[in-house]
Amino acid sequence: MASCYLVLPSPVRTIPNCLTSFTRSLPSVQLACQPVVFKPISCSLRPKGEVSVTNLNFKKQLCRAKASMAGVSDEKTQGKVQVFDSEEDLALALAKYVAHLSNRFVRERGAFTVVLSGGSLIKSLRKLVDAPHIDSVDWARWHIFWVDERVVPKDHPDSNYLLAHNGFLSKVPIPAGNVYAINDALSAEGAADDYETCLKHLVHNKIIELSGTTGFPKFDLMLLGMGPDGHVASLFPGHPLVQESKKWVAYIKDSPKPPPERITFSFPVINSSAHVALVVAGAGKADVIRKALGSNDQKSDLLPVQMVSPEGNLAWFLDKDAASKL
After folding, report:
1. CB neighbours (10 Å) of residue 269?
2. Helix, strand, or coil here: 207?
């Protein structure tokens, strides 16, 4: 029986996945694996947010952006493009933004569901492990998911789980049972189906909310990076998966960026989020940012990053290098 993973820093445990119907509460989980050093062990269980700026053609203003822009502390600043003098200032602002949302959702519904991507996004979360956030955030209420994952072992250098663990998760006291990784023992198709089943079970148990508008899972916060080709998650320009409209979690075996086999949330899931933060730094992404946020006269097909349009709020976090061609 396939099983969705709840990840410990070293050993791994699972929750039941293929219940005939989601009519029972989440059962207790019995661990059946021994701790190991570094390599996780799998063990099975039986039983629109719009960009809110006055003028998107504002290169001069953006290049004069100061570190004082850093920090999103209330609803009024969400959904705006923010540009920071340095990636360090961006990271400080992102930490404040995430901590603010964490406190709000924990207060309102007792949980905070956070979706991570890979790449440089994890590095940009580093300020969350510093004071004052490390002590003020209610980490016990966090639930961690991945918007996409490479179908490789969890100790493989390409693993988004490994990247997140080493750069963030190992440094904060999020309960091991609240970290949900894919079952890397399955095929890409099997891992995608398994992860979707896991999400449905967590919706049933009210850990994840369901969007009343779309019927797809509604995560509290989705943290996305962007590739230099404009891809987000594992949704690449020109690939048929960008048009997926029914699946919650899809799989890909021909990724144009290695490794080829991956799982990814579909756009309906991404765009059902309460909050999406797009975090982009570096001059190598300036051309794509110009296309995504610059003039509106492009006649070419939309890049995946341009298809991010959540029913909730969209916030852009850019350093001035990424925004240098606006």
Report:
1. 26
2. coil
